[in-house]
């Protein structure tokens, strides 16, 4: 369920605040562990890059969460922001 009065936590902030910081792992160390560039990981953490299926697989394996967790965070984040500017489309009626 999407929060109504605040944006959902972005996948990058969840990664940083709920996983990396409590584990005492830096972004640089985690990026190396994933065999990614620091820039790629940092862009996810800072919300400048989306979590893709490929990145969700890697992060999920490394942290033992599974990819669905990361993809669901991204989906909820995207949907909440899209709803802010969405223009309602009328229901399509059956043509006789």
Q: Count all strands and give the number.
A: 0
Q: List SSEs in N-to-C order.
A: HHHHH
Content of β-strand = under 5%
Report the end-to-end length measured between terminal Cα atoms.
37 Å
Structural class: mainly alpha
Q: Which percent range fits the helix content?
A: 55-70%
Q: Stretches where pLDDT falls below 50 for ≥5 residues?
A: none
Describe the main β-sheet briefly.
none
What is the overall number of helices? 5
Query: What's the average pLDDT?
Result: 94
In one word, what is the shape?
elongated
Radius of gyration equals: 17 Å
Describe the structure.
The protein is mainly α and 96 residues long. The chain contains five helices and no strands. The longest helix has 17 residues, at 67-83. It is elongated and about 60 Å long.
Write a brief structural summary.
Helix content is 59%, strand content 0%.
Helix and strand topology:
Elements (H helix, E strand, L loop, with lengths): L10 H13 L3 H8 L3 H8 L7 H11 L3 H17 L13
Helix pairs in contact: 1-3, 2-3, 4-5
Which features does this protein show?
mainly alpha, 59% helix, 96 residues, 0% strand
């Amino acid at each position: 369920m999407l929060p109504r009065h605040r944006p959902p936590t972005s996948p990058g902030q969840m990664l940083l605040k709920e996983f990396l910081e409590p584990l005492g792992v830096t972004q640089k160390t985690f990026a190396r562990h994933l065999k990614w560039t620091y820039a790629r990981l940092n862009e996810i953490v800072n919300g400048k890059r989306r979590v893709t299926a490929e990145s969700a697989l890697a992060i999920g394996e490394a942290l033992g969460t599974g990819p669905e967790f990361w993809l669901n965070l991204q989906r909820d984040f995207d949907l909440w922001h899209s709803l802010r500017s969405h223009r309602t489309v009328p229901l399509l009626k059956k043509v006789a």
